[in-house]
Each structure stands twice: as structure tokens, then as C-alpha cells.
Write a structure and sequence with these properties.
single chain, alpha/beta, 7 helices
């Protein structure tokens, strides 16, 4: 049977990782989530002192595009409209990570990265940024697992894979 991760599962996984002294620094949350609204989930994470430093990225549907500003106000570092290309997701992750490291907003970093891409097209290759982060990837599709796993590893991330919500909670 197919199982999906709920918002409550995500909270439990984040809490367990923190208790084990190995917190996740980034959570990519897919909306809609079973059992909880995005604003409730962000509030629960931000109200918990142990979890509030988790970087939150929200994946939304086309119909929620107009709610982007509201989601950012709730504590999400950025939102992406599904379907999301791997390169777009990677750019978003790099941008929110850089924003955290430099004390900037994600939108400032995204603008800077757009300029860097233009310069790269005109010039030469840019140096790959390393992200020394621990990432929990919850994905049931083996092909998607391989693609995302390789993408994170190229950037120096330590990645754990869970095939479903139950596995994620057990980690």
C-alpha cells in the first residue's frame, strides 16, 4: 500500500531528529498536506524553539500562486509552484541557504543568482557551492530518489532516504 507523509508526520520527524541531536536544517513540504494546512504547519514549527531554525520550502499547486506572499509571511523561506523542475528546486535550495548564511532575504539571493547565471552564460563556469547539511528525503518513486539524491550529494549534503511517512517518522 502507498503511504504519504502528513504534516503531523513531518513535525514528528523534525522533533525526533532534533532530540537525536541531528536536526534537519531544511524541510521541503508539499501542499496540500493531509491533516494540516500550510499556515498551521508553519506556525507549529515556528512556535517550537527547537524547530524554528528549520528552513521551510513549500511546494504549491497552480491555484495557490496568488498566496505566495501570505506563505512567505507565515515563515516559509520560499514557495515553488508544482510541477517543479530539479534545477528550479536546486536554485531555490541554494538561494534560501545563502540567504540564511548571509542574513539576506531569499528574494535578494534569487536576484543575485539570476545575475550570476547571466554572467556564467557570457563567461565561464562558476564554482559549485557546498552545503554541509543533513537532509531527509521522503520519496516513494525510485527514479525521483536517485535524481534528487545525486543532486544533494553533489552539493555535499548528507542525505537519508525514507520511502514513506512511516519510515520518515522512524528516522
Amino acid at each position: 500500500p502507498h503511504e504519504s507523509v502528513t504534516g503531523v508526520d513531518a513535525i514528528l520527524a523534525l522533533k525526533r531528529a532534533h532530540k537525536a541531536n541531528s536536526p534537519f536544517v531544511l524541510a521541503i513540504l508539499d501542499c496540500p498536506m493531509s491533516g494540516i494546512e500550510p499556515n498551521e504547519l508553519a506556525e507549529m514549527i515556528n512556535d517550537n524553539e527547537a524547530l524554528r531554525n528549520t528552513i521551510l520550502i513549500l511546494l504549491t499547486g497552480q491555484g495557490q500562486r496568488s498566496e505566495t506572499a501570505a506563505f512567505l509571511g507565515m515563515g516559509y523561506a520560499t514557495t515553488l509552484v508544482k510541477p517543479v523542475r530539479a534545477s528550479t528546486l536546486l536554485d531555490a535550495i541554494m538561494s534560501v541557504w545563502a540567504a540564511r548564511e548571509h542574513g539576506s532575504s531569499a528574494s535578494q539571493i534569487l536576484a543575485t543568482r539570476a545575475l550570476e547565471k547571466q554572467e556564467q552564460r557570457a563567461g565561464g563556469p562558476r564554482q559549485r557551492t557546498q552545503i554541509p547539511a543533513r537532509v531527509l528525503l521522503v520519496e516513494d518513486n525510485p527514479i525521483n530518489q536517485k535524481v534528487v539524491l545525486e543532486m544533494f550529494r553533489k552539493f555535499g549534503c548528507s542525505v537519508e532516504v525514507a520511502h514513506n511517512g512511516s519510515e520518515a517518522v522512524d528516522r
